[in-house]
Amino acid sequence: RRSTMDTLEIDAGDVMRLILQFCKENGLNESVKCLQNETQISLNTVENLEELLENVNEGNWDKALNAIELLRLPLNFMEDLYEQILLELIEAGELDTARSILRSGNVEGNNLEHTKVDFSSIKINGPILSLRINKPDRYSRLEKLSQQNSFDSFEAYRGISKEKRRAKLSTFLSETLIVAPPSRLMSVISQALKYQQSQGLIPPGDKFDLFRGIRPSKILENESWPDGLEKTIKFGSNSHAECAGFTPDGNYLVTGSSDGFIEVWNWSTGNLVKDTLKYQANDQYMMHDTCVLAISFSEDSENLASGSHDGKIRVWQIKTGKCLAKYDSAHAEGITCLCFTKDGGQILSGSLDSTIKLHGLKSGKTLKIFRGHKSYVNGITFSNDGSKLFSSSSDATVKVWDSKSSECLVTFAPSQCPILMSDGTSRKQEQSMKDFAVNSVCLFPKKPDHILVCNRSPTLLLMNMKGQIVKQFETDKGKNGSEFINCCVSPKGEFIYAAAEDCYVYCFNATTGMVEHTYKSHQKGVIGIAHHPQMNLLASFNEEGELNLWK
Questions:
Q1: Share of the chain above pLDDT 70, in %
Q2: DSSP label at residue 199
Q3: What is the rounded distance in angstroms from the CA atom of residue 264 to the CA atom of residue 252?
Q4: Nearest-CA neighbor of 175 among 74, 263, 84?
Q5: Other CB atoms within 10 A of residue 198 CB
Q6: Each residue of 282-306: pLDDT tens digit?
Q7: Which backbone phi and psi does 23 adopt, to 5 degrees?
Q8: Taking the alpha carbons of 323, 327, 333, 339 in that order, is the dihedral positive or negative?
């Protein structure tokens, strides 16, 4: 029924009955008994009522009792039921079985070698004990009948035929028991998920992590470049996304904005996630006092680190919006980039103050400082095994660090690096590029010992650990093309995407180095791009308060 607030009210007992039915259908009979005893809520439903009534009417007591065993029926009825069973056992000459039931209240299997009806798995001590204590006349009468050599059915059944007594029991069951369709719990959940999917509240797909309330990770089978605009998210007139990224499990898109807000989006609908993230439904958000410049996710997608223009770092639990850690003096200037360690226990940060720092999540302290860059640190990432750290800077260099000792292992300026030839030799660039600021550095999925370098030039560089250029990626305009601002790689490394100052996104084939596709991402002021970890989905965002999703 619906209340005045137009909310659907559900009886808690019905929820428990769904759980009891699920347990029963999956053979968890002990769990059913425990739950019924603890909650005092009875399932009292059978899969096939007609079959049960037929077994009662025909005196198939072993089958009838197996169906009744997990039900909670009135004690008076159970006394009548077992009295009828005892009378029929005595009539059939099963005197030993009848005596055993009367004396022990529970029949063990070794007493039933010659019994036609199998009671070995059915506990009946409750009704028999009640007859013995509360209704001794009836109990004594049954005991006396079990000792006689002859059986007078008229006297034993008190003038009512055996069939009519069975019919009376059957009528009571038909009026008392509930008939419910099988697998109701799974049906209700399935219907709810289909409705939420139809309303765009959960991502599309045929699989869903019911416990966590998210779509499980899915690995791409075939990569292809996005060819059309899927959704546009528009921010307020005085706000825009400064950074954006997809959680590693691919379920959410998260943005950090110029007004300090951190928001979690359903990338499928373009709406804020409010059904599973109740804090957003209550208009409560993760946020900083100043512009959020960088975000990063723990590998399990549980936690989010954010860095702001005032040099502060926050660590959040995404599902609750709770702040887990604060680093109010992380850096002297703005945080430009962040990266979790593989185990999620530490956070690496790069800053406008030219330093890189490692912070402990539990201790809340700065553990290491990496010094050496002479200008802004723009990008940081760990090697796959975590032993090395790569950083890019506006001083036009890329540095490789030992993550344990904080020692700088090698420094190279991409604009001056030699080109690796197919025969293993290297040669100088024909025309050295200017010392462009290096905006970002990221790992290349196909070759873990290669990094993709994006400096503020018309050329992307794939480089090895020796500082040699393995491959160059340029548009058809060559060195005269628009300067690249940001880049990312598809999950399997088939495609490389670069956002340029002309607001176009260029999609390069990672193998051939050729441009496969281009599209105008925004009219002006593009800031960056981010790729979904499993799907052919790309996000681009600009200074005008637009975030476009391309699929």
A1: 90
A2: T
A3: 6
A4: 74
A5: 9
A6: 999 999 999 999 999 999 999 999 9
A7: -65, -45
A8: negative
Q: How far apart are CA 246 and CA 268, in angstroms?
A: 12
Per the DSSP assignment, residues forming a β-bridge with 442 are 452
3-class secondary-structure state, position 213:
coil
Q: pLDDT averaged over the chain?
A: 87
pLDDT at 207 over 80: no
Instruction: Report residue 185 as tokens.
Output: 């719990």
What gap in Å lies between CA 498 and CA 516, rounded to an integer?
12
Q: Is residue 8 pLDDT above 90, yes or no?
A: no
CA distance 449 to 325: 33
Residue 521 sits at the vertex; the CA angle it makes with 515 and 524, to the nearest 5 degrees, is 120
How far apart (Å, rounded) are the C-alpha atoms in residues 63 and 60? 6
Q: At 169, which helix (H) or strand (E)?
A: helix 162-176
Mean pLDDT of 384-395: 95
Residue pLDDT, tens place only, 401-412: 999 999 999 999
> Is residue 178 within 8 Å of 42, Cβ to Cβ?
no
**Phi, psi for 6 (deg, rounded to 5):** 60, 35
Distance CA 434, CA 387 (A): 31
Is residue 221 over pLDDT 70? no
Report the share of the chain in percent with pLDDT over 90. Answer: 60
Query: Which residue type sits at 319?
Result: K
Report the amino acid identity of residue 341: T
Q: For residue 544, which of 527, 532, 520, 530 has the smallest C-alpha distance?
A: 527
- What per-residue confidence (pLDDT) applies to 213? 65
Q: What is the pLDDT of residues 125-158, one digit of tens each?
A: 578 888 888 899 999 999 999 998 889 888 899 9
Asked if residue 389 lies in contact with residue 348, where contact means CB atoms within 8 angstroms, the answer is yes
Secondary structure of 396-465 as H, E, C letters:
CCEEEEECCCCCEEEEECHHHCCEECCCCCEECCCCCCCCCCEEEEEECCCCCCEEEEEECCCEEEEEEC
Q: Where are the beta strands (DSSP E) in 318-396?
A: 322-327, 335-340, 346-351, 356-360, 366-370, 377-382, 388-393
Most distant CA atoms of the chain, gap in Å:
118
Q: Where would I find the H helices in 74-135?
A: 75-91, 95-104, 125-134
* H or E, element range at 4: none
Q: Is the dihedral of CA 157, 122, 44, 179 positive or negative?
A: negative
Looking up tokens 């009468």, which residue turns up? 141
Q: What is residue 69's predicted lDDT score, i.e. its pLDDT?
A: 78
Residue 113 has pLDDT above 70, yes or no: no
